[in-house]
Design goal:
By secondary structure, this protein is mainly α. The N and C termini lie far apart (67 Å). The radius of gyration is 23 Å and the shape is globular. Helices cover 58% and strands 4% of the residues. Helix 7 crosses helix 8, helix 8 runs parallel beside helix 10 and helix 10 runs antiparallel to helix 11.
Amino acid sequence: MNQISVCCAECGEEGGGNLKTCKRCMLVKYCNASCQHKHWPTHKTACKERAAELRDEALFKDPPPKEECPICFLPMPASLITCITLPDATITSVPMQDFAVAYEDMAKMDSEQYYPCCRKTICKGCEYSFIEFEKDGKCPFCNSDRGGKRGQEAEELSNRMRANDPASICLLAAHYNQGLGGVEQDQTKAMELYARAADLGNSKAHFFWGRYYHTGGDSKKAKFHYEAAAMAGHEIARSNLGAVEYDSGNKERGVKHWIIAASSGSFCAMDQLRILFEYGAVSRESIDSTLKAYNDSCAEVRSEARDAFIGGMMKIIESMNNT
């Protein structure tokens, strides 16, 4: 077991509480920056190894509890597809990819709604119920008008941005990225805002940065941002991180990430594991235990209100497909 030093690693002087611990490995202490600089050539190999161990400990531990909707108090789903009941079948007979294709519109839809006026995020089920009570265009918390003039939300988000609200900054970045809410599409501006939100610790912003680098072929930077989002509990980022690791040749790490992501309700991760199981790359014991965790996680995020929203959306999708 690694032991933390009680004296300066360079000069050996005992400084008690005045010694500064190496922030990378947390194993050695120094009198000052000069001693740390002198000792670095001797210490760097062990420091980097221990720093990597510490990061892996943080990366592969159980993810934090999911954020709850402040109205229904149920965990937020990673995507709407996790709120749809899978047919009763074993892992070998469920056509999971066919199921995903059939509900791909649900997989792409937002599963939550953010209200910058109150800095609250609610699930789509509760938003749908609120609309059903003829409260469309109102904030469920402060009752302010949310259906106002074009560009109102972008202006409100900009005001929240000046207060360094990471969720508002991330959502404003999405507006610029897609040209929504009355703002002109500006991907350069969007990435600047995503970077700012990521610096403030927003996991969604780290996810978008990770996806940006992943799409661009920069796996090293993609991995950094996916890891930051995954440690904060972002299931889709964790699933994508599994793909980065697996495609880079780190197959064992990739599978570990997919197991964690699937156990938290990531459909894509569960399907990747199913494919590996069919090729004999994942054991029956592992796939069975992960599938149970996946189904349990999905069951936790299902509700009548979310079912009602999904049903309403499916009718809209069907009518659009029939026109």
